[in-house]
From TrEMBL:
InterPro entries named in the record: Beta_galactosidase_C, Beta_galactosidase_Trimer, Class_I_gatase-like, GH, Glyco_hydro_42, Glyco_hydro_42_N, Glyco_hydro_b
Listed EC numbers: 3.2.1.23
SUPFAM superfamilies per record: (Trans)glycosidases, Class I glutamine amidotransferase-like
Binding-site positions, substrate: R122, N160
Keywords associated with the record: Glycosidase, Hydrolase, Metal-binding, Plasmid, Zinc
PANTHER family, per the entry: BETA-GALACTOSIDASE GANA, BETA-GALACTOSIDASE YESZ
Protein name from the UniProt record: Beta-galactosidase
Source organism: Rhizobium sullae (Rhizobium hedysari)
Active-site residue list: E161, E321
Length: 711
């Protein structure tokens, strides 16, 4: 398993390994040593090549301060290695031992209400604490020195799902570090007061020592600039905490690969220092958990959305934890994958960019806060259908990996994503509106259902391989992106700008020029003269919550039906649509074509959607938020003209299609996401690598069955 230097971050980046990582997170400390040899034999028989160890075992590795004992893991690693299973070891800093939190209580996290965390869970230590960072470096150094020459260890995972249990802290250590960060960023208190709008509500400070971390409803809202800088700081501090470990591991053995496994995407700037320090990113994928928590629709479409959002940060990735069965903690539980579904969900991850995958977990725990979180084996140590499906998946990978590795996921339609500042700017001032991702979901779901290649991309990335870019109301549009986006349009691309884009600068100030601001206004030929809220029955109002994981939120309260008074409608082509959330009145340049007009109330006759020819392409502006019907109307207007077409025509419902490609190679993934047999037609002529059979036009897929067609 060879590692090469990683390429720069890009949605088009492939993994820098020559092997597909396939295996399980494994906890030998949870069972008697008599299980270990049988575990290794079964892993090897299943076709696994790697196992992940150690992320929650600091108390075993260092039972007393300065006293290290790695013997349990030495033996476990040797047993696995003797059966051809390599080890990914983890730094164990998500769960500090009790002696540490008892001796150094200042390392404990403090919540917004001033409550100090206690020992007995995970992520209860404050990664902003200099004392905790010192102990993190110490255990990482001890592990690196001990295992630097171990032939069975191929790579490392830093910590475990940083910021998943909680990303914020209100401890004294956090406030001290926050002040240092602000001093470094602004240098003078006058510069900070300007950035945070200190003359509003008398929120100016006399010196940096007066600043505290922001608290919601204290009693009113804090400055958006204060809020945004706090979350910038949290991302900065998380990257610094991880970098301590990365530097130690790199010095010990530069051959090792290093990654992190992300759970919730909170307060981490993946395209910043955090991502640059790693070989690649890992994303833990629990499709039924996302669907249960968000009620966002079918779990297959939700999994596709999550994977596409994640891939925009760094390109191809691994899945260190892929759901294998029923999952639960005391506060929730998920649906159980039906026969064949675990394998299909794993292939969905591969189809959308995974070049490595580990099923969570090898066996379920018999004690603790996840006793009903099922694994590949059952509690009685008997391998049943999940083990057989994992073995089938391993055979799938063996058949396709030669063609798979080195390919990237095709995108014809791309949605602007992976920008930390815009993610946080929305949260700093959500005002009941949908987040950028919630808005973009309408376009993503349409493309998913039609089999159109769709994903997310950052505007600074290489846009030459996409045909259409949609920007979902990014309030912070940065001037340095203008050149790349304008070149994309001039070279034949279609740019679609959503409402409210470019309405704030990096300090969350409203610019003195009309939105969408310098660069985009000239490119689109429009300026937003006025905007207003659409108060629909049941719409989110003053009580909308801030965004949560990957941009989705749940409204805490709905406006009563009696508040439904003002609906604004517009026409695109021959179809009338109702505006969602917001309307904008546009001042339009003479050469701009109006392709949608408001047609009721005082807005009647004004431009709602415009298009301007620029070179070989077009720049389109939409003066409202997306809806399902609007996406359909725009697709009818735009897709055929821009060469956007389904990967497979006449795609049946509940069939997912994706293409991974490289020079001279194309793989079409065709995945039946439901329990009924389906007939898929209009397929390209090629070979289904999973069965070895020729495919020419038609294919029958049984419940949760898949095909990978090389064409």
């Amino acid at each position: 398993m060879k590692r090469k230097a990683p390429a720069p971050l890009s949605v088009w980046r492939t993994l820098n390994l020559d092997e597909f990582l396939l295996g399980v997170p494994h906890y030998p400390e949870h069972v008697d040593e008599s299980y270990w040899k049988r575990d290794a034999e079964r892993m090897a028989a299943a076709g696994f090549n790697v196992s992940r160890l150690g992320e929650f075992a600091w108390h075993i590795m260092e039972p007393r301060e300065g006293v290290f004992d790695f013997s349990l893991f030495d033996q476990a690693i040797e047993v696995l290695g003797s059966h051809g299973i390599k080890t990914i070891f983890c730094t164990p800093t998500a769960t500090p031992p009790r002696w540490l939190t008892a001796t150094y209580p200042e390392v404990l996290r403090v919540d917004e209400n001033g409550k100090t965390a206690t020992h007995g869970s995970r992520q209860h230590a404050d990664t902003n604490s200099p004392v905790y960072r010192m102990h993190s470096r110490r255990i990482t150094q001890a592990l690196a020195e001990h295992y630097r020459d171990n032939k069975h260890i191929v790579g490392w995972q830093t910590d475990n799902e940083l910021n998943t249990t909680s990303s914020t802290s209100h401890s004294e250590a956090t406030e001290r570090e926050f002040r240092r960060y602000l001093h470094d960023r602004y240098q003078t208190i006058d510069a900070l007061n300007f950035a945070w709008g200190g003359n509003f509500w008398a929120t100016a400070y006399d010196n940096f020592d007066q600043i505290t971390v922001p608290r919601a409803h204290n009693p009113g809202f804090p400055s958006p600039g204060h809020f945004q800088d706090y979350h910038r700081f949290l991302a900065h501090a998380t990257a610094a905490f991880q970098r301590d470990q990365v530097e130690i591991l790199r010095r010990a053995n530069p051959v090792w690969f290093i990654f992190h496994n992300l759970g919730r995407l909170e307060d981490i700037d993946f395209r910043g220092q955090f991502g640059h320090d790693l070989d690649f990113l890992g994303f833990d994928i629990y499709p039924m958990l996302y669907d249960e928590m968000r009620r966002t629709g079918g779990h297959a479409a939700t999994q596709a959305l999550h994977l596409d959002v994640c891939r925009a940060y760094s390109g191809n990735f691994i899945v260190p934890e892929q759901a294998s069965g029923f999952g639960s903690q005391p506060g929730f539980s998920t649906m159980t994958p039906e026969p064949g579904e675990m394998r299909r969900m794993a292939l969905s991850s591969v189809a959308r960019g995974a070049d490595g995958l580990m099923f969570f977990r090898w066996r379920p725990a018999h004690y603790g806060a996840e006793i009903y979180w099922m694994g590949i084996l059952d509690h009685d140590d008997v391998p049943r259908r999940r083990y057989r499906e994992a073995m089938e998946f391993a055979r799938d990978i063996a058949k396709i990996k030669k063609d798979l590795l080195g390919t990237t996921v095709r995108m014809d339609v791309a949605i602007a994503g992976a920008d930390f500042d815009n993610q946080e700017a929305y949260k700093a001032y959500p005002m009941g509106m949908p987040s950028p991702v919630e808005d973009a979901v309408h376009l993503h779901r349409y493309c998913y259902s039609k089999g159109i290649a769709c994903g997310f991309i950052h505007p600074e990335d290489d846009l030459s391989r996409i045909k259409l870019l949609y920007v979902p109301h990014w309030v912070m549009w940065k001037p340095e992106w203008n050149g790349n986006v304008e070149a994309f349009v001039k070279n034949g691309g279609t740019l679609v700008i959503g409402a409210m884009t470019g309405t704030r600068n990096v300090h969350n100030h409203i610019p003195t020029v009309l939105a969408p601001g310098r660069g985009l206004s000239e490119l689109c030929g429009v300026r937003v003269e006025e905007f207003g809220r659409v108060a629909e029955s049941g719409a989110d109002g003053l009580f909308g919550l801030q965004g949560t994981e990957f941009g989705l939120h749940h409204p805490a309260r709905r406006l009563p039906a009696s508040s439904a008074a003002r609906r604004y409608k517009f026409v695109v082509g021959n179809q009338e649509h109702e505006a969602a959330h917001l309307y904008e009145l546009l001042d339009v340049d003479a050469e701009v074509e109006v392709i949608g007009r408001w047609n009721n109330r005082f807005t009647s006759g004004r431009a709602a959607i415009t298009s301007r020819k620029v070179g070989k392409g077009s720049a389109i502006y939409i003066g409202t938020y997306l809806t399902g019907s609007l996406v359909e109307g725009l697709a009818d207007q735009l897709f055929a003209h821009t060469g956007i077409a389904p990967l497979v025509a006449n795609l049946p419902a509940n069939v997912e299609v994706t293409v991974r490609e490289a020079a001279g190679r194309k793989l079409l993934f065709v995945l039946n996401t439901e329990e009924d047999t389906v007939e898929v037609s209009s397929l390209p002529t090629g070979v289904d690598l999973l069965t070895g059979k020729e495919v020419s036009g038609c294919l029958s897929l049984g419940p949760h069955e898949s095909a990978v067609i090389r064409f």
